[in-house]
Amino acid sequence: MKKIFNYIDGKLVSAKNGDWIDNFEPATGEKYSLIPDSNAEDVEAAFIAAEKAFKSWSVRPVQERSDIMLKIASLIESKQQDLAEAESIDNGKPVDLANAVDIPRASSNMKFFATGILHYASESHQLNEVAINYTLRKPIGVVGCISPWNLPLYLFTWKIAPALAAGNTVIAKPSEITPMTAFLFSEICIEAGLPNGVLNIVHGYGPKVGAPITEHKGIKAISFTGGTKTGEQIAKVAAPMFKKLSLELGGKNPNIIFDDCNFNKAVSVSVLSSFANQGQICLCGSRIFIQEKIYEKFKSEFVKKVKKLTIGDPKNKETKIGAIVSKDHMEKVKSYIDLAQQEGGIILTGGGNRTIEGRCKDGYFLEPTVIEGLPYDCRTNQEEIFGPVVTLNSFKTEEEVLMYANSTKYGLSSTVWTENITKANRMAKALDAGIVWINCWLVRDLRTPFGGVKHSGVGREGGFNAFNFFTEQTNVCISY
Ligand code: TXE
Fold first, then answer.
1. Rounded to whole angstroms, what are the CA distances from 405 to 18, 164, 261?
2. Domain that holds residue 460
3. What residue's CA is closest to ligand 1, atom 8?
4. Would you say residue 417 lies in a domain?
5. Per-residue model confidence as pLDDT tens digits over 338-385
6. What is the pTM of this model?
């Protein structure tokens, strides 16, 4: 049975208590590896290593930090296929998706911040003939990065790259459900010559590892992506300790289709924004609002395409819908499909588990599901499901659909389909969202601010926003 290890002070080690957690392959339901069942003791060991490493890493020339990160990026690229297969086995996503999205983006994250830091400047302000001010931007120290299971290496590197580039040292905790590529990443860091203690990866459960990271007095900032509930717990602990906090949480994103849209593009992209990664992306458009005049036409075209999505072994090239990440999560998503029916929803396609013959017969598979006939304010339309489930609702006017769209406690992203640019800009301004896509979805420019409002999070990642988060500012004022 393959064992993976913590990466502490440059060494691959088991948990101090010698305990292990079973790690399952979602496509087969079988245990396939063991991960350290770490706890606060391991976090403390990681902190000691990170604190020591900070003394040199924080003053290392930026170009040298950048060069090491670029070496890591090129090693990711050279191991792309292995990493994609590992990601697919660990998460259940189609290997083609991991190859097209997850792994290339992990390398891009490293390259983007390794080069961005070379251009990250600060500012000065001249106060007439009285004084000159300049702003110092300094790395914070030891920071905590906690990431989820849906886009494991993609979101893991999205956090640690800016932290490292800015001169911090990091204690990172990947999800215990998808730890594999973070472990492979630690082997890459060793190969790239990342100095000991600069990055430390501690595997294990949230309450036993994530919570000690959040509670640790020496860890000055926490960057978290995951569920809103967990975000609340983290905020409760970190706030009275006055830690810097970046929270990227859940979403219940509206996908708004006006009758003056580019119809064919709206349909085909909506299939992607509904079911990519089995609907396990916080940016998926899980509530589809269609203007009345084209509701029936959209519904029939959309459902036709959804029925054609191949559900199967994530290893197969033609698979579009892979396995759900865990048995628990599959049951959680299925419970929402049952709830939708209790709330009066009509299932237009999907709704059930799918048994895949052969090696995947005991895997966690759900059919992509489309539901209509639910009120906008029922639980199914208000709560994050985070699986291959979308609802369809019709609307008459802009005001009506805005009220529906903004009615949830979330505000992460929204998609708007219309060829009328004035209307598009009006909608973008009125929507409660951190990100609005017009006539597209998941088009990502890494320089842009990334994050949500309301219960979708606090703060922004991406571009210089990420460097602003991972540095502290001192304004120095010198009188003439
Ligand atoms: O998130 P969790 P999970 C949503 C989605 C999903 C829900 C739960 O609704 O169903 O979150 O998913 C660690 N202190 N999103 O289980 O539990 C945990 O070990 C510190 C949206 O992934 O929040 C893992 O490493 N850390 C999201 C990480 O937090 C704790 C993407 C996320 O786990 C902790 C994924 C604690 N008390 C899920 N408890 C998005 N916005 O992209 C757990 N953790």
1. 49, 37, 18
2. 2-249+454-479
3. 227
4. yes
5. 999 999 999 999 999 999 999 999 999 999 999 999 999 999 999 999
6. 0.98
